[in-house]
Amino acid sequence: MKRARYSKTSLATVAILASAAPVLAHAETGAETRDASFDAREIVVTGRGLPETPATPAYDVQVLERDKILSSGSGRIEDVLSSVAGFQQFRRSDSRSSNPSAQGATLRALGGNATSRALVLLDGVPMADPFFGYIPFSAIVPERLSMVRVTRGGGAGAFGAGAIAGTIEMESADAATLGLFNGGLLVNNRGETEASAQLAPGIGSGFAVIEGRWDRGQGFHTTPADQRVPATARAKYDSWSASARVVQPLSDDVELQARGLLFDDHRTLRFKGADSTSTGQDASLRIVGRGDWQFDVLGYAQWRDFSNIVISSSTFRPTLDQHDTPSRGLGGKIEIRPPVGENHVLRLGADYRRSKGRMEEIGYNATTGAVTTHNRAGGTNGDLGLFIEHDWTLGDVILTAGARADRWTVRDGYYQQRNGSGALLTDNRFVGKSGWDASFRGGVLANLSETLRLRGAAYSGVRLPTLNELYRPFVVFPVRTEANAELGVEKLRGFEAGIELQPSPGVSLALTAFDNRVKHAIANVTIEQNLRQRQNIDEIRAQGVELSASVERGPISLSGTLAYTDAKVHENGIDDTLDGNRPAQTPKWAASGTFAWQPRENWLLSLTLRHIGRQFEDDLETDVLPAATTLDAFARVPLWDRLNLVLRGENLFDEKVITRNQGGSIDLGVARTVWAGLRYGF
Questions:
Q1: Would you kindly state where each structural domain of the chain is located, as residue ranges?
Q2: Handedness of CA 304, 222, 168, 586 (dihedral sign)
Q3: 472 contacts 481 by C-beta, under 8 angstroms
Q4: Which residues contact 68 (CB under 8 A, 6 or more apart)?
Q5: Is the pTM of this model over 0.90?
């Protein structure tokens, strides 16, 4: 197993994590202290970015509040997001029992490979791995969050490049929400544990939050009983993450936000020795101004690493050791909202992202164990975006329109292979490329009455191939997928229309119909048996409807979402084998419904039923992943003060959820799991 390594450049992150320590001794327990210079006025410190504009609801937006975030059966953020119909990872397994590199996030069935087509932000910072494009879900702890806003459909202002399936924005909770101390310890029926703690003192006119979480367990068998061999292993996992956040006012309408994140994740999948690790160190600094001239200035740096050992399913010996995949992401944005009148919101700005990384791997003979190859690959991607957006309120109608121009670059790409003795076999240096792409979005929101609202939107967007897609081949034994340095940019065109109803207090309905097309979509295309290559196909077109509804009656509430998506590949080239096929790993139907009962203050009992439809493992539709329906449960019972008994249940039906089917070789999702423990705080 590879040990986590922390580069010298990650000292900035460590500094931020330590930044709260010296001031904790001066913090008053559970209350804010205030500098004398601020006594004359009230200063509100939120720790958030600029507020959403009036036209935000013109797009297909669903908001998850903190109580919903904290009440999932698994306690993991990907499970929380699954309550938004249309959200999916590349595979159905969660961050305890999947390879980290398969955890790409997408929406609206615009899948096809493991890279994220949805833009995932934490406090404004893109969370995708700079090399792979996957999301480190195990490092995003639900207890740290106050809200999640999911916008289905492409196009965004800042950091808009890459948001071709939608945007998932997560905001950290402030000290007032968390209280001085939060913490919990839970154990499940397999003896696995989940431990977390948060300290959030008020400091001056601001606050600090220091957090940590550790998850460990022997895991469950992802291999069906009739396919197990002596080398079969449980999906063992051991992961931790720690973060620190400091928010302080610089004046009565300007605040400084600093955040650091460290995480380390170890997993074993399917066979003994099939170990993977992912590590990361993130740091960000943000200044937000809420005066007449509003502004949001953000800078961030990320250092990530990944390793993975591939085990032969016939000899059960290593065939590939991807022992080192260091990468670095740098970026930032500046957004300005000048005062242009009461009925207008104008956003101007620029953003930048740069990803640099490499992979190093060793190939082995699966029979003898002899080293056969040494492979190295890597490169650098960059994107500079300029954006403008204007919202105009005309009574009960709000109009919005925006445009982006992205200057992207792909350079320094290489792939090098040596044989077992070190002799050079392949030394490819790829020609760099660059270009400009324009994208647009616009919408209208009409409030026809207090109970009826109509909306419509159209948008476009672009996504640059990741370094992983361009240069790194990978193996899910026995299938090998080749990289492709000639990949081009994905381009989205889409439109949608929606209606929202509130026929009575506590009752709401929303329906959206959409048509999205991704030109030159990157997919894992089968070129011969057990061999695939990443290729730009002509188009993935996804048409469908999304429905959400909620009813609240006293202590009882019902909420649910449903998505039906008819997604098809259109390929009109020389080989049109894929034409009309459904993209790999994309179901037609996805639904989620939650029944909740709050008999008393701070009590919560809930049941969540989820259904994911039938889908295909591969692009040729040869291997089927059957539909699955699961039931989760959550209970919080106050015991004393802020101390609560917490009970959770995952897959209480013990449904057989097939997450991988390669010619009959099957992996399974989480088995029935019951958790119990104590949590202090909400």
A1: 8-680
A2: positive
A3: no
A4: 80, 83, 594
A5: yes
